[in-house]
Amino acid sequence: KAKRLGGNHYQLYKEEMNTLTPERLALENALHHALERNELELYYQPQIETKTGRIVGMEALIRWNHPEQGVISPGVFIPLAEETGLIIPIGEWVLETACRQNKSWQEAGAPKVRVAVNLSAAQFYQEEIVDKVKSVLETSGLAAECLELEITESIAMHSVDRVIETFRELHKVGIQVSMDDFGTGYSSLSYLKHFPIKRLKIDQSFIRGIPSRADDAAIASSIIVMAHSLGLQVLGEGVETEEQRQFLAERGCDEMQGYLFSKPVPAKQAEELLKKQTVVNN
Ligand code: C2E
Ligand code: MG
Ligand code: MG
Ligand code: MG
């Protein structure tokens, strides 16, 4: 099933990654050992509530500390992991680590926030995904409302009936689901109303053009209006400037995330940000 969902459906592969170059094979081989060699690390990026300026969530973003090549970004190795099936064990590690981390921040006296975890298609469409998530919550002791799963719009639109079913089950457990990179896929708006999701994340490609590009500004504004009329919250991704923040705030965008507030940071630093509940530009 995962195989069928791979390939070009999601445009997840960079073209050059499909060719069997020696570099690619070496990277793939190294990725096989990355987990057991402890080379994977989660960074966390604050999600800010517009009204209060407080951190209400932390998105977990994976990094690969490659012994020779240094830090490799997920844009490079997640497609490789998806292609090789390694995304399943890696994705499980991400989920477990993020939940455990959030619990340990709470135990260290930090304010309660959600931790957001990105799911790949193959992971999300696993038969046993809901059970797996439940069991991670149990093991980590994290409350369901402190976990959010991010699924891209294109993943959600691939197999709508399955998705609605899975979203319903997650919703029953109390887990929040948000739709990532919203506006870049091909959402059928009529399906959107059936999805029991919590929020839409406006893709950063639209935020980037604010305020100078009228089309991007119009799209972002419309997404906010539409989301609110469907009872969904909205988060603006990739907010880098004060102008962008202000534009989104004036239009009632509920939350924001981006370099203006903080880059993704290692777990320890994320804990300090949470404890201070002030975010410095870095
Ligand atoms: P995403 O989930 O849409 O994450 C947002 C990306 O935008 C992150 O890139 C983040 O570092 C970057 N970003 C945040 N604020 C700004 C900003 O103000 N300006 C700019 N230019 N960029 C900003 P990153 O960490 O390289 O991750 C890229 C993508 O890789 C993610 O996109 C997500 O789709 C995927 N990814 C990351 N971690 C995981 C994971 O654990 N599992 C899976 N399946 N995918 C992951
Ligand atoms: Mg995301
Ligand atoms: Mg995104
Ligand atoms: Mg993305």
How are helices and strands ordered from N to C? Answer: HHEEEHHEHHEHHEHEHHEHEEH
* Structural class by helix and strand composition: alpha/beta
Coarse morphology: globular
Largest sheet: 8 strands, mixed, barrel
Heteromolecules bound: ligand C2E, magnesium ion
Unreliable residue stretches: 1-14
Total DSSP helices: 13
Compute the CA-based radius of gyration: 18 Å
Whole-number mean pLDDT: 91
Number of distinct beta strands:
10
- Gap between N and C termini, in Å? 42 Å
Strand composition percent: 15-25%
Going across the biggest sheet, name each strand in turn: 1-2-4-5-6-7-8-9
Helix content: 40-55%
Protein name: PAS/PAC sensor-containing diguanylate cyclase/phosphodiesterase
Domain EAL: 24-278
Organism: Brevibacillus borstelensis AK1
List the helices and strands and how they pair.
Layout: H1 2-5, H2 22-34, E1 40-49, E2 55-66, E3 70-72, H3 74-84, H4 87-107, E4 114-118, H5 121-124, H6 129-140, E5 147-152, H7 153-156, H8 160-173, E6 176-182, H9 189-192, E7 199-202, H10 204-208, H11 214-229, E8 233-236, H12 242-250, E9 255-256, E10 265-266, H13 267-276
Parallel strand pairs: 2-4, 4-5, 5-6, 6-7, 7-8, 8-9
Antiparallel strand pairs: 1-2, 1-9, 1-10, 2-3
Helix pairs in contact: 4-6
Bound molecules: ligand C2E and magnesium ion (3 copies).
